[in-house]
């Protein structure tokens, strides 16, 4: 079930984020992930419209939107391949129509998901804090 984020979800949401981040971003070091953890709590969750996929009373995944930007979409790795990410993205698409997202080029899991969903590359840059190459992707409204 998809529902709005509740502050009580924060511990589980952060666990999902960390497990999924370690899987999809093995090229990111612990110091960066620790800073991202702080930024999620203090900077991003307060301004994002966040939706949670709840399964058996637990956070199985989430998507955070800032305008038409997908600021984050993460699914618990133990639940990958069950359509949770697609359902979260479908929900975001119903809400916003066109969507944009940035993904690390080295994130094969994320790139595969976005490609399969229909996102198209519209730009490329370098992520300042990590030096990693980033792709900007866009999903046209239906």
Structure write-up:
By secondary structure, the chain is of the alpha+beta class. It has one domain (2-139): 3-Layer(aba) Sandwich (Aminopeptidase), CATH 3.40.630. Helices cover 37% and strands 32% of the residues. It has helices at residues 10-24, 30-44, 84-96, 108-117, and strands spanning 2-4, 49-55, 58-66, 69-75, 99-104, 120-126, 133-139. A four-stranded antiparallel sheet has the order 1-2-3-4, with helices on both faces. Strands 5-7-6 form a three-stranded antiparallel sheet. A hairpin with a 2-residue loop joins β2 and β3 (58-66). The protein starts with a strand and ends with a strand. The mean pLDDT is 96.
Structural class call reads alpha+beta
Oligomer: single chain
- Calculate the terminal CA-CA distance, rounded to whole Å: 23 Å
Spatial extent as radius of gyration: 14 Å
As laid out across the biggest beta sheet, the strand order is 1-2-3-4
> Structurally, how many domains make up the residues?
1
Q: What is the correct CATH architecture?
A: 3-Layer(aba) Sandwich
Give the class-level CATH name.
Alpha Beta
Largest sheet: 4 strands, antiparallel
Residue share in helix? 25-40%
Categorize the overall geometry.
globular
Series of H and E elements: EHHEEEHEHEE
Number of helices: 4
Tell me the β content. 25-35%
Summarize the structure.
By secondary structure, the protein is of the alpha+beta class. Helices cover 37% and strands 32% of the residues. The mean pLDDT is 96.
């Amino acid at each position: 079930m998809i529902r709005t984020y509740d502050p009580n979800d924060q511990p589980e949401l952060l666990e999902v984020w960390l497990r999924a981040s370690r899987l999809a971003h093995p090229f990111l070091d612990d110091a960066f992930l620790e800073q991202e953890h702080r930024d999620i709590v203090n900077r991003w969750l307060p301004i994002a419209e966040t939706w949670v996929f709840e399964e058996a009373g637990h956070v199985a995944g989430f998507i955070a939107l800032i305008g038409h930007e997908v600021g984050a979409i993460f699914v618990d790795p133990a639940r990958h391949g069950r359509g949770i990410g697609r359902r979260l993205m479908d929900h975001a698409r119903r809400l916003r129509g066109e969507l944009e997202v940035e993904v690390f080029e080295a994130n094969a899991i994320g790139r595969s998901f976005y490609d399969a969903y229909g996102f198209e590359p519209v730009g490329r840059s370098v992520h300042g804090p990590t030096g990693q190459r980033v792709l900007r992707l866009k999903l046209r409204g239906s």
